[in-house]
Amino acid sequence: MDYAKSLSQRLAAPVSKCVSASxxxxxxxxxxxxxxxxxxxxCNWDRSLRKGVxxxxxxxxxxxxxxxxxxxxxxxxxxxxxGTAVExxxxxxxxxxxxxxxxxxxxxxxxxxxxxxxxxxLSRKPPRRIDVACVTFDLYKTHPKDLGCLNVKATxxxxxxxxxxxxxxxxxxxxx
Length: 176
Prior knowledge:
Strand content: 25-35%
Oligomer: single chain
Pfam family, one: CIDE-N
Protein name: CIDEC protein
Order of helices and strands: HEEHEEHEEEEH
Domain CIDE-N: 36-112
Number of helices: 4
Largest sheet: 5 strands, mixed
Shape: elongated
Radius of gyration: 35 Å
Number of strands: 8
CATH class of the domain at 38-105: Alpha Beta
Keywords: Apoptosis
Mean pLDDT: 76
InterPro entries: CIDE-N_dom
CATH topology of the domain at 38-105: Ubiquitin-like (UB roll)
């Protein structure tokens, strides 16, 4: 009988440790990891104050924008470029990192920037260039008796260019 009690105590201790370890591991796996904070740029209604904030969720972004810009509660976030309201968590998750947002308090509304023309926007990225190289060939004559000339010009990525001018003179000049 004593042997059975000692055996049950020896077996129960490792089993209880396994059960508690697996339960905590299951809780960690089910809880999942918290989303990583992403950077955003927020400004006030007249774009006079701009701040960068990091937030993993819409609720946290609202709280951080309110404290960074020292605005009265409640606030609404809209996209700075077109005034689209950011109201749901699912729409918030689709925003790219570094998106420019405008925080609006009660009675304020989004308005397009007053200055037109070239602007450095917060969420504007330079257009992606897809042209790798542009090559042009120009044939021309400097004199009616010449065979002709060829000008080759290559432009790489819209930035770097090089050209070569090949001149073919008349047969008399070639022989000399």
